[in-house]
Amino acid sequence: MSSAVLVLVETDAHRVTETSLETLTFARDLVKRRDGAQSHALLVGPVDADLRATALSQLADQGVDVVHVAQHDGLSAYSAASWATAVVAAAAASSAAVVLAPGTPRGSEIMAHVAARLDTAMAANVVAVGEVDPLVVSRQVMGGAVLELMRLTGRPAVLTVAGHAVEPASADHSTQPEVNELQMDLLETDLLGRVVRVEASELDDTAALTGARVVIGAGRGAGSANGFDGLLELTRLLGGALGVSRVVTGLGWRPHHEQVGQTGTRITPDIYIACGISGAIQHWAGCQGAKTILAINTDRDAPMVTRAHYAVIGDLHEIVPAVNEELQRRMG
Description:
The protein folds into two domains: 4-191, HUPs (Rossmann fold); 205-331, Rossmann fold, CATH 3.40.50. The protein contains nine helices and 14 strands. The protein has helices spanning 18-33, 49-61, 80-94, 105-118, 229-238, 246-250, 281-287, 303-307, 316-331, and strands at residues 4-9, 38-44, 66-70, 96-102, 122-132, 135-141, 146-152, 157-161, 178-182, 214-218, 241-244, 271-275, 292-297, 310-313.
């Protein structure tokens, strides 16, 4: 069998996730650059019939040649070790030269297990590939402020793809993937650490940061937990989502799910309006993917101001209400 580029695919209740589509797009370039390579994907249970049909359609659109499906009673709940067992089995079945996963918390955890089992190095947060034999990748370090070149000489090469490293795109030609029902054995030790209960969180609309085309950012300049009224109004008027800095969540002014940054959510909106945010490197790691950044700040030398495409120097509590008033006037 020709060597393969294998992607661990994550799904939600209905479809393949956006970060997995990004990873499949990233992997497709690797396939093109490796003579005779095939594109393989791995689906790990639980995957019901409807989700399976939708996922196979999406993977066909991504030009995947073979889809490995790992179904086992022990995979009914997430466990990093058991999912790693499935990845290792799929890598062996496909003679994989490269194994990739989205750079999500789950993908990173599973790939760490995979690399340990295969006794090879793992490259996390990869954004680009240079040479392909041996594989040389660029990866984000120090919160995305620095790119590191890493040579992966092990086989298979194991890596995760940084979120939003590429825009997800369909293949030039769709395929009819071969489906391989993966046979695997799980050990009791694979199931020692696993999810035992899932509870729905009560999040408001501002939680949808990853898909928002407009994000209004708020930092210490908001002043207090009561200083977000104007920002929330601007968010509503622009049909966007509210994102905040780590200091805001640390002070308890806003919930953690709104945090943008290295330890929060990485965003790629059309525009990010950063209000009262100094722009520490950890926050920049989460917002640098925005197509346009507008900073509102009293400090013209703040890192966010110097890095932004546009800046307004002034107090957000004066500027944002004025913007809201003008938007309301124009909207009638």
